[in-house]
Amino acid sequence: MAGEETNSGGDHDHDHDHDHPPFLAHHFDTPEQQFDSGKLGIWLFLVTEILFFGGMFCAYAIFRMLRPEVFEGCSQFLNTKLGAINTGVLLFSSLTMAWAVRCSQTEEHKKLTGMLAATLSCAMIFLGVKAIEYSHKWHMGLLPAGLFSYDPNHPHHEGGPNYLLWICMPFILIAIGTILWLVISLIRGNKFHIACAKPLTVVALSFFAGVGLGTYLESGGSESHAVAGAHADGDHASGEHAGDDAHDHDGDHADHDHAHSSAAQLAMEDSGDLDVLEHLASDATNTGLKDDVAARVRQSEEASGSFAYNTSDDAANTINDVEREFLTPSRAGVFFSIYYCMTGVHAIHILAGIAVLVWLLIRSVRQDFNRQYFGPVDYVGLYWHLVDLIWIYLFPLLYLIR
Amino acid sequence: MSAGSIPSGAQIRDPGYPTHSENYLTNSKGIMSWIFTLDHKRIGVMYLIGVTCAFAFAGLLALAIRLHLLSPDGAMFKGENANNIYNQVFTLHGAVMVFLFIIPSIPAALGNFLVPVMLGAKDVAFPRLNLCSFYLWMIGAVFFLMALLGSQLDTGWTFYTPYSTTTDTSVIAATMGAFILGFSSIFTGLNFIVTINTMRPPGMTWFRMPLFLWATYATSIIQVLATPVLGITLLLLIAERTMHIGIFDPEYNGDPVTFQHFFWFYSHPAVYIMILPAFGVISDLISVHSHKRIFGYRFIAYSSIAIALLGFLVWGHHMFTAGMSSLTTIIFSALTFTVSVPSAIKVFNWLATMYKGSISLTTPMCYAISFIFLFTIGGLTGLHLGTLATDLHLHDTYFVVAHFHYVMVGGTLVAFIGGVFHWWPKMFGKMYSELFGRLSCLIVFLGFNLTFLPQFVLGSRGMPRRYATYDPEFQSLHVMSTYGALLLGVGLTVALFTLLYSLIWGKRAPANPWGGATLEWHCTSPPPFYNFERAPSVGDPYEFGNVEWDSEDERYVSTEPERKLVPDEQPSEVPAH
Lengths: 402, 577
Hints:
The complex is a heterodimer of chains A (402) and B (577).
Chain A: H1 2-14, H2 31-66, H3 68-75, H4 80-105, H5 109-140, H6 163-188, H7 191-220, H8 234-242, H9 244-269, H10 271-281, H11 287-304, H12 332-365, H13 375-399
Chain B: E1 11-13, H1 31-35, H2 40-68, H3 82-119, H4 127-149, H5 163-166, H6 171-198, H7 211-243, H8 256-290, H9 297-310, H10 326-354, H11 363-386, H12 388-394, H13 398-428, E2 430-431, H14 434-460, H15 475-505, E3 507-508, E4 547-550, E5 555-560
Antiparallel strand pairs in B: 1-5, 2-3, 4-5
Helix pairs in contact in B: 2-3, 2-4, 2-15, 3-6, 3-7, 3-8, 3-13, 4-6, 6-7, 7-8, 7-9, 8-9, 8-10, 8-11, 8-13, 9-10, 10-11, 11-13, 11-14, 13-14, 14-15
Domain Heme-copper oxidase subunit III family profile (chain A): 39-402
Main location (chain A): membrane
Keywords (chain A): Membrane, Oxidoreductase, Transmembrane, Transmembrane helix
């Protein structure tokens, strides 16, 4: 009896509306209704996200269909190792995120904070690796069509701004900020601030772990792998790799030639099938096959070097005397445009994810979540899985198409 | 029917008037209580003010266009730059009307006010997101102003490449504005879908929802599914201008027709974002003012959804002459015709509702009837444009301009004004002058037809759209059109002043001035800030049998027949065992 009374007394303390727990917004009747609304809301939001990226996937499909050889050729400039490691990092972050949702449901507050911090650290590592990839390509002039300035004979531009430093700058500032926050809260002995600042410092420093990882893989990949992998960027690799530089250049050209000749070979091997296809294509209704044959003929002409003037009616090739080499701004440039748009918008989503995850982390330290109220963790989790999923599509579409 | 008097002995239910502290307009004071309000009704009112300002601005630009076209060489803008100024004026007219007025007009302004009240909920599902949508709308509007004050904009509201990537005008500011407005629209749509799905009180089943809610739901589906594609398209356009990514720009091997496909994949469904809520408003208006159950409730409800889904399949009909294969054009043309079926179902049902109804020719009903006239003309002329053979002739002529103004102005704007007149007593608790309301409707109807009927003739005779100058043979029709536009302007001004006048000198509005049966008429005028004290009992939204006219107090009341109650059996004092 007495226990009951104190309980109800406690309830009356914070609200006259004893049915309304503090986390329940005034316009909802029950926690279930609130959770269902949020869940439906986030799913709808994810639908809009998919359509948003859908536009870019569509652009990718159109341009790859129009110029498959450009996509295959340019894909060689992307470092598969870095892409793969980022895929692994993001998959792992999805695991920790799902685990975080579970922890919020079981009210394991410490573990929840840890899982959120792990997810955040993975996001930061992803961005660190991405920073290496981007700065490296910018340095070589592998840029969107309007800015494309790659020169196969001189892949390394002399001088130029230190892109990596510029990308890292905000993260350096953030890291310094969190460390300062940690130090100040340690001095003041504010427990809540310490509990927030500690994991966030780890998170901020993870970015540099990503940068280090990227640097290591980028230089390690030079012997065996793609063209782009061959360049150890002088800016971040400094002394250690200076010796490799000369060697790298040779490696580049070899790889280039290889890329070209392999395309030619492919065309040759197919020449047997070509006759059959031509026969089939003589049927007027078979327009798809006709295009295919035309493309193959063009491709083999190109490969054998006999190609001089473009006589096809492809609207994009109106300037006939342009050299047919895919490493031009209007060809490779478009590939890199799509590459930067897709990965860039994806990176923006990672940044947005980081922002909401930090908010969750602070709330988890405050122990806001319980078995009745874990909606925000769940919603952010769904968002994070989507961002992860989009990368799962981007990786093969951009990196693994040779 | 409601025309009768109250049966004797019947119980009357009327919520009365709100007290000062209950009224959502006055329950909290100060400008901050409006800026940070989470009340959907206040946000709706703020939207109403915002879209009205945008409409007035874009309407003045329209008048400038029409005045310029008074003479074949241009009457309004003079000097060397005249044609450029003309381009900028029609671009801003189109962009502001579409992005700042029509798209948010009914869904955001009326929808925000009505959706939770009609549904019987306390608020929308995400009140903060709702406020956020409003401020995104404001920010988008600021970007448009920046474009105006900067180097203007002369691409047309469609931002077609390659012109938009080469012109010197402020394309980036305007596209950024449209991008942000897109998010505002997405969030509003998302909010309504979730609200309608999860916030319905007990008894409010899907088929007890007023048709306005069905229309809003269909609109929201489009907003959520189509707008992100516009978002990414505009983002790519901005990237194209700043970095020349070569996706749309032919100079870098891009494909400008791809832009058109992307753009119309959004903007055709967007046409239905504009017209579907108008269908919802008209369904309610026709039924309430005919005092008769809506005819074919389920058909109207499903046809809204059908239009929303079919709307995604027809975008190619904007591009018949843009270089698609002949097979594609035939498919798009055929799909376009399918959209006319659900639209025709609606018109048929509205007419069938009015048939043998007891029609009150109030101001909202006058607007609703002119909507049916104008929308039917607009819809039928759409068939000429969906037909390949005629479209090749009519494409990019004044016929197109006249067609979509019949749908967007004659349809959406007229329904919007009708809706505002219908729910004005509910929103502000004031009755306006019926005389001036009806007068405004008459002037708007005449002015509108005088403006745009001649444009059908102009277009079919070959007058191309967007031209600043024209052959002298077209002058008489252009002059008619310009006078019509001025008359239309007068009509809209009369409507505006009728409403504003009522705010101060209007009679106090009863809870149910028209005899509606939907839930918003069950709360006071204006509603209390909490909408309903407890979840309301939900009946049929179009059952008018128990709504009676109370001639003493000039109001409609809902009545309950006298009931003989069986006297409670007194429980015995002593338990039976």
